Amino acid sequence: MNKALMTAMAAGAILGVGVVTTRGTQAHADAKSDIQAAQNKVNAAKAKFDKLSKGTKVTEVQGGIPADLQKQITDAQNNIVNSQNSLASAKKDLQYYLDQKEVLQKQLDAANAKVNATSDNDPSYQQVLTDFYTAQYASQDNDAQIANAQGWNKACGKYVQYYTDQLKALQDKAKSYGGKTVTVKKVDQATLAAAKKEYQAAVKELKDAKAGKANWKIPATSGHNKYTRKTAKKVVKKAKQLFKIDVKANKVYSYKTIALHKSGRKLEKKGTKIPVYKIVKKGHKGFYLIKGNRVITANKHDVMKIK
């Protein structure tokens, strides 16, 4: 019998043969769920990679166009995009100052009314007058910002039109070289590389899930197979405790499987001493196999190894 399989079965049988059967069934179900979820991720990542590999349709001018002319066309296209972005930003600024104008005007009206309502001989008159001039300055400054934003909007609009006209002229010039507008498919290599990396990670996850199923496959003890009640009892006698651990942290959980599903997890109280029967790995992380065929983290911040 496989040694790892015997150890896992023995640890599960500590609480009785019936517990082994129950835990084994649950482990099988969890492992199957993990594998299916990992397979779905692989399928989705593969579909995404295949789609990106085919590229996207792009309309461009091709033919006997000189390289410098093609560069001018590309530059004009980029200039249009940049000027459109600048125009959008200028419109946003203008709207902000227009919204502020109404607020500042109300503040100025209130300050003016307070000046008119305060006597020159009033001790607070000087402060009231200062508040009025402050509100007046803020309103005037905002008006200047509005004028500036309006001018910038107008300039950006002219740039957009200028580069649009320039692009059209360059494209018309390109036609004289026998160039023609065609639709081609282009692949974004950076996006494709990222999708490939995502696919490879999904494949590894599927591989780990399948390996996890092999690690946690516990045969049923009921029925007339070779793992009978009598056999299970014999294995229990051979089960070897490696060492014990002491739970150090307040929130340390043990899980039904190495997949670490929240469903069925159990909070292990701080200060609890727990026997360990096997050390297992998931990726770069270590775990301990404890009673009930459960796993718990081997992180030194959470648990401490004792004799």
Automatic annotation (TrEMBL):
Keywords: Coiled coil
Protein name as it appears in the record: Surface layer protein A domain-containing protein
Residue ranges the record marks as coiled coil: 28-121
Organism: Apilactobacillus kunkeei
